[in-house]
TrEMBL record:
Species annotation: Aureimonas glaciei
Keywords, ordered alphabetically: Aminoacyl-tRNA synthetase, ATP-binding, Cytoplasm, Ligase, Nucleotide-binding, Protein biosynthesis
Protein's UniProt keywords contain Aminoacyl-tRNA synthetase: yes
Role this protein plays: Catalyzes the attachment of tryptophan to tRNA(Trp).
Family under the similarity heading: Belongs to the class-I aminoacyl-tRNA synthetase family.
Gene: trpS
Protein name per the record: Tryptophan--tRNA ligase
Tagged with keyword Flavoprotein: no
Amino acid sequence: GFEPRVFSGVQPTGNLHLGNYLGAIRRFVELQDTHPCVFCVVDMHAITVWQEPAELMRSTREVTAAFIASGIDPERHIVFNQSRVAEHAELAWVFNCTARMGWLSRMTQFKDKAGKDRENASAGLFVYPALMAADILLYRATHVPVGEDQKQHLELTRDIAAKFNNDFSARIAELGLGVAATGEDAAEGATQGYFPMTEPLIDGPATRVMSLKDGTKKMSKSDPSDLSRINLTDDADAIARKIRKAKTDPDALPSEVAGLAGRAEADNLVGIFAALAGRTKADVLKDFGGQQFSAFKPALAEVAVAKLGPITAEMRRILADPGAIDQVLSKGAARAREIAAKNMAEVKKIVGL
Ligand code: ADP
Ligand code: NA
């Protein structure tokens, strides 16, 4: 079978928020103890929409600082930015030729991000999922911790891996580059192909953190309203103010999870509390069921500040020395390149390039 490996990426597009932390970065930290990990600041994904160059570089350092401040150890695991390892672009091209127009046309993120003026969206935004598949499969990663919003892209990654394995099965066998199948049913000499079927790791109470202003929209970096999200750079006052102003309904909190159905805003705030406190929603409602939001919100602000305050402080400390961050990224890129170069050379052989 494939050696277990985790890959995940975060875009340096500014405004890192609570959703990125709970849905992704926090999970990265946990996985460090069980898997070899590759954590990537995906700057080439960022430029699928316009980015100010100086701001992009600042953001790349900010995401790196957030990784480290949250507890990712760049000595033990690989932390780097995507554009420094050219093989990402190279494999993405191969996958542009593997993926079908129809597959890409069904991606809901493209439809959301391109909006009504699709003719004016970059071609990069359309093929973004092929680059994402390349990021993951370049390291033959078996697991990807992501938020719910990335589930469809992970399915596409598996479709690309399966088509590549199938299209080139004879060639992969001839070159002896397939990974041996394991388990009782595996026939003599059977292989699982060159690329693994990567699994998403999506679980816990905050895989989809919603906007504080609209419980039907996900919390997002690109929401024009700063009140819609808690940024990882917000201080205690800002966090408390945003939670106080968060949209809610007039009812008291229910005492059971079933009572959150149809109450998107209440469900979101309880889920955030649970994720930050490391508890289940049911457990949180045992304490707060029957109480008004006027009582729950200050408690939520307190948990949020206790959890995020130290991370914010550590991020500021790390960001004060941009040279040190650049050094972390350079070292990480060198380590990533070792794996990437070997795998890309094999892919080229398989394809006949
Ligand atoms: P964004 O969607 O805010 O631009 P990215 O695309 O860089 O952020 O996503 C980084 C990671 O954060 C991904 O794993 C994504 O699934 C996760 N993520 C983003 N927004 C949310 C959210 N609102 N709730 C949970 N996870 C999220
Ligand atoms: Na996203």
